[in-house]
Amino acid sequence: MTTYIQLQCSCIICKEIKSVKGIHTHYERAHGTSQQKSKYSAGKVGGLLGGKAWADICAVQQQKLAEQYHISPKTCTHCASIISYEKRANKFCSSTCSAIHNNTGKIKVTLKSCDHCNIVLTRGKFCSRKCSANARKKYKTVAEAKEVKRIRRNEASANYRAKLRNQTPINVDRKAIKEFYKNCPMGYEVDHINPISKGGLHSIENLQYLTKTENRRKSAKIL
Fold first, then answer.
1. Total tally of structural domains belonging to the chain
2. If DSSP codes are grouped into helix, strand and coil, which group holds residue 207?
3. CA-CA distances (angstroms) from residue 98 to 84, 86, 91, 95?
4. Is the pLDDT of residue 121 over 70?
5. Residue 197's domain spans which residues?
6. DSSP-based three-state secondary structure for 75
7. What is the C-alpha to C-alpha distance for residues 206 and 66, in angstroms, rounded to an integer?
8. DSSP 116-140
9. Coil, helix or strand for 86?
């Protein structure tokens, strides 16, 4: 059979006999600092009142402390702005102020603008995925895309008609013809000076720019 011996000890101040387990608690309650005494008294009062009532009392006390703090609040060491009651233990109002202050007032930030909408950025090329998608579009507007598509369709159609009639010279500069169609101004059309239907060649020398109205008026005539 095992026997347990409860060791006794006396307080060094009042010489009151206590168990070893409770001597430290006795010392803090009877002879400790005001903060230690208030901790035990608060626990006793909270047990008597109940959880909700004690929580309400604590909330009122916290509100009073907050009101007292706002009378003479603490300010940020770097920017001198007011630090909130919840962050009253901090020396700085934000991590940015802390970084700037700890780096001897110098912080390297490279400012640049979005490649599409010119909004100021600190990193990256675009401010959003939408700007990134729009910037990578080959044509900025729907009208521009339609115009380019129409020019390419006309060039392909003219090339096909000339090929059927064997009116494309063997040594023709196809790249020059393609560039001529590509550089057609808005509102203009590429016209064959001597129409293909009348025996004209599909070559760079036989091409010109005409407005839509002039091209329709000319039609397949030889002027």
1. 1
2. strand
3. 16, 17, 8, 5
4. no
5. 142-218
6. strand
7. 88
8. TT--EESSSS-SSHHHHHHHT-SSS
9. helix
The dihedral built from the CA positions of residue 163, 167, 168 and 170, taken in this order, carries a sign that is positive
Kind plus residue range of the DSSP H or E element containing 17: strand 17-19
Task: Let me know if residue 31 belongs to a domain.
Answer: no
Query: Residue range 152-165: average pLDDT?
Result: 80
Query: Over 50: is that where the pLDDT of 105 sits?
Result: no
Q: Is residue 196 part of a domain?
A: yes
Question: Would you say the pTM of this structure is higher than 0.85?
Answer: no
Dist. CA 181–CA 178, nearest whole Å: 5
- 198 lies in a domain? yes
Residue 30 located in a structural domain: no
In the structure, what pLDDT confidence band is assigned to residue 28 with cuts at 50, 70 and 90?
Answer: low
Q: What is the CA radius of gyration of the chain?
A: 44
**Cα-based angle 81, 85, 86 (whole degrees, multiple of 5):** 110
Q: Determine the Cα–Cα distance for residues 106 and 118; give it in Å rounded to an integer.
A: 26
